[in-house]
Write a structure and sequence with these properties.
Number of strands: 9
Shape: globular
Helix content: 10-25%
Strand content: 25-35%
Largest sheet: 6 strands, mixed
Strand order of the largest sheet: 1-2-3-5-6-9
Length: 173
C-alpha cells in the first residue's frame, strides 16, 4: 500500500474546469470509438453523481441497454496500482443508487451501472453489475480530484477491479 500512496501524491492538482475538460475528452473519445453507444445525457458539468447516460443498440435484448456511467481520467499507466483498477466505494454506491432509482421508475428499461476509466496506456469500461469487487482497501487519495487548490488528502474506501473484468478495453496510442 505504501507504493500506492507514493504515486498518488505525485499527481498534479487541477481546477474544476480543467478536470471537466479532461473528462469530456475521455467521454468523447470513448463514444467516438463505439458505433453502437450514444450519449443520451451529459452530466459532466458540476459535482454530479455520475458523468453521462447512454444507450446501446448492440445488446440482444429487445430493449436497448441503458447506462449510468462514472468517468475517471488518470495521468498514469494502468499498471501503476498493484492489484487493479481503483474504484471508490462511494462512486460505486452513487452509481448503483441512480441505477436502482431508474429501474424502479420504469421496469421495462434495462439500466446498468458502468465505470469508464482512461489511463495513459488503456481505457476500460466496466459493467458494475458483473464485476468481482474483492476486498475493500483504504487508500490515501486527494479529497477531490476536481477542487481548486485543495491540498487535503484522506483515506477512502476503494475496490481494485480486475482489468480482465472490463467489458471494453481500448489500447491508447
Amino acid at each position: 500500500m505504501l507504493y500506492s500512496v507514493v504515486f498518488i501524491i505525485k499527481q498534479k492538482k487541477m481546477n474544476f474546469k480543467q478536470h471537466i475538460n479532461i473528462e469530456s475528452v475521455t467521454i468523447e473519445d470513448f463514444i467516438n470509438s463505439q458505433n453502437e453507444i450514444n450519449v443520451t445525457e451529459l452530466k459532466n458539468d458540476s459535482f454530479s453523481t455520475y458523468d453521462f447516460e447512454f444507450t446501446s443498440g448492440s445488446t440482444n435484448n429487445q430493449f436497448p441497454q441503458k447506462g449510468i456511467t462514472e468517468v475517471k481520467t488518470r495521468k498514469y499507466s494502468s499498471t501503476k496500482f498493484e492489484g487493479g483498477i481503483l474504484l471508490e466505494i462511494k462512486k460505486l454506491a452513487n452509481i448503483m443508487d441512480v441505477v436502482t432509482f431508474k429501474r424502479k421508475k420504469n421496469i421495462n428499461d434495462n439500466w446498468r451501472g458502468y465505470y469508464l476509466v482512461k489511463y495513459t496506456d488503456v481505457t476500460f469500461l466496466f459493467e458494475l453489475d458483473s464485476v468481482q469487487l474483492g476486498n475493500i482497501k483504504m487508500i490515501l487519495c486527494p479529497e477531490s480530484s476536481s477542487k481548486d487548490g485543495s491540498k487535503e488528502w484522506v483515506y477512502k474506501a476503494c475496490f481494485l477491479l480486475n482489468p480482465d473484468d472490463a467489458i471494453i478495453r481500448i489500447e491508447n496510442t
